[in-house]
Design brief:
single chain; alpha+beta; five-stranded mixed sheet; flat; signal-anchor; membrane
Length: 192
């Protein structure tokens, strides 16, 4: 094999590696999000369509945290800051969202569950998260979160002493269905 042929093969292999790595870098975030949703990793609650029908006598305190990014002129709060939830029983809690600014604003909520390990057992049936919401000045919206704690939590020895779970939401300004943050100095917005 000639030197020119080996060089050509090396260039092609390196080019293929660069293309493959670029493709993987674009796929990394969606693949990581999918992994978190499927496994409950990093406190990501599971998504369900209905309760399992099984219950337990165990009671877990569920606290509700509501935050708003500084760039979004909204007030955001849970109707109740905490509840006592029976494992396996469906619960509904409402959040109140008010646009306190003088102009229409669009926001999107992200969430997580703490402690992280409980995310695999915190199952949301209905949620306003990752849904773009536009509120007019002074407009208020009540949004429900319907969830249950999966009875399978009883089989996890690491969570046997778990007494409380915190569901935390943060509303960010959004554009085209993606959260954005104000960048410093120039007033432009960039994706989070």
């Amino acid at each position: 094999m000639s030197t020119a042929s080996r060089n050509r093969r090396t260039v092609l292999a390196c080019s293929a590696a660069v293309i493959a790595m670029t493709g993987l870098s674009f796929a990394a975030v969606p693949l990581y999000n999918l992994f978190c949703k499927v496994t409950g990793f990093a406190g990501t609650p599971m998504i369900g369509t209905a309760a399992t029908g099984k219950t337990s006598d165990r009671i877990v305190q569920v606290a509700f945290d509501a935050n708003v990014a500084p760039a979004l002129g909204w007030r955001f709060e849970a109707e109740r800051t905490q509840i006592q939830a029976q494992v396996g029983v469906t619960q509904t809690v409402f959040y109140k969202i008010t646009n306190t600014s003088s102009r229409p604003m669009t926001g999107i909520a992200t969430y997580n569950v703490q402690p992280n390990q409980s995310g695999a057992y915190f199952v949301k049936i209905q949620c306003f998260c990752f849904t773009e919401t536009t509120l007019q000045p002074g407009e208020t919206l009540e949004a429900p979160v319907v969830f249950y704690i999966d009875p399978e939590i009883e089989l996890n020895r690491e969570l046997a002493s778990l007494k409380s779970i915190t569901l935390s939401y943060t509303y960010f300004p959004s554009k085209n269905g993606q959260p954005v943050a104000e960048s410093k100095g120039d007033g432009n917005q960039s994706k989070l």
